[in-house]
Amino acid sequence: MKPVRLRAVLYIQMETFEYSEENDRATAAVRIAGLINRLRDGGRLSEEEDRQLDGWLAVGDNRRLFERLMDREQVISDVRAIDDYDKEAVTEAIFGRLGLQYPIEVKRGPWLKTWASAAAVLVLVAGAIWILMVSRKGAKMEVASSVLKKDILPGSDKATLTLGNGSSVALSGRRHIELGIQGDSRLTDQGGHLTYEFSGPTSATEYNTVATAKGGQYAVTLPDGSRVWLNAASSLKFPTTFSRKERMVQLTGEAFFDLVASKDHPFRIEIAGKGEIEVLGTRFNVNAYDDEPSVKTTLVEGALRVNALAGGGFSRSVVLSAGQQALLDRGHITVANDFNAAQAGAWKEGYFSFSGMTLEEIMRQVGRWYDAEIVYEGDVKNERFAGSALRSANASRLLEVLALTKTVQFTIEDKKIIVKPYHP
Amino acid sequence: MNEREFLAGLANGDQKALQWLIGAYFPILCKFAEQFLSDSSLAKDVVQETFIKLWQTRPPFHSINSFKGYLYIAIRNGCLNLNRGRARRENHHQTMCAGEPEAVDPLETGIVQFEAISLIYDIVRSLSSDKQEIFFMSYKEGLSVKEISARLNMKLKTVKNHKYRTLLELRRQLGSEHGPLLVVLALFFNGMS
Predict the structure, then answer these.
(1) Does the reported pTM lie above 0.95?
(2) Which of A28, A237, A260, B19 has its CA 20 to 30 A from that of A48?
């Protein structure tokens, strides 16, 4: 593989938490405190919460702490003991260190008197003049973050489920919905996750399809307990019961698979017209969008085989081991080693992760997630970037970060993102 | 700003989120840090540095609880690093090793202790000092936060907390593997409020 030269490298260091045991314990402690708060204030706990609290109380000196925290007088004296501090000074110090303006400019409501708005206009005009003067002098201005006045909201949990009989159901990812029986499975939809559970044998096998549009994502637990996360503009077709011999699904777009191991039931993912992936039980990401030059299979754990389809039969096959990525392109397969496999599943953890990707590749992901059309004005497609950004943030957050490299700039018009080379 | 709004604000780089965090949590976290550092001005420094680092990196958070857990761990680590550095300089290695035998982790106890008063602190800090006294008296009498708010004629977070609780409930049902989607959900709930 050719070494990648990065012209514009921006790496936002992310303290990604690998969910260490300590993080879990800290989060659990926060939760326990929440339960105590509620109990003290006369609220009730569910059975499950009761059990959690009891578990915590049984450890060490926790019961004594609990009694102390339930004592309102004690709480009052604890709150009183919290030092008075100069909030303004602390805030100013922190904002100053971060290069942020403090106090934050506040948008005024309609109650603002006219003289005040007149004053604001004056300030604006003065500011504009100042900017003009500064730019005349030729001083460099940080324009990157002020360009994007309009914004695009991120995608969310939504998909369409097509049942065996052809009828379809919109999945909104919000509440708990029982969707009845399909073939051998009971279906529930809850919080962006569709689950198939074995309910009892029937003879009929039906095929269901979960499809996301641009700006959507969804998770599915298949009848065998395997989990699949479906990215935007993707679809997964699968039987409501897997056959005794093998587990076969059809994928378009991108999905992350966490498969339940079953030696006697190989798992096959068909990618129409391109090939198939044959797996025993493992975790991996498949990116098979039609607008991508190749089908990328990235293996996080375990082993799998990629079979390329050409001329009506399988032309080549390659076995991958963990940390490898297979690129399947018109019947040919190339393998990249030492791939940062965790990055391939970053999207399902809620962030974009790029290491040396071209702008064009990045913007394809952006277009799918923010349901935006990408328009290029000028030659920037092949600039490469490295970094991470939250998928839950508005589009501007990512674009502003990319713009900070001073190689590219963006304008948002409704659902269109215009990409241009950077012009100071 | 409540906790949900904070989480969404943090994700979007909203400076008001940082301002809220400093107002609601800075002094509590200083007290927490003092458990690990005897010097209260150093404790303050650690909390300040942690906030700066947090804002510079803004890692993705699945939920307000995991965010808080992260914050407490980061501050504890900051304190321990400082201690370690000083111990090395002063050549007092033993002080570090002479920890307690396998007792309850001071991190967890500290979190429970300070989290359990943070809600009351957040309410009280927004009141004028005479209202604070009324609040304390009524709270001691056994009135609920809600009843006291009615008495003080305050618009209080408890009402908003209803939606927050719905969110917590959702998360409980979803289990951990769908955490990341919650930021999205949080944004959605914000849109409704």
Answers:
(1) no
(2) A260
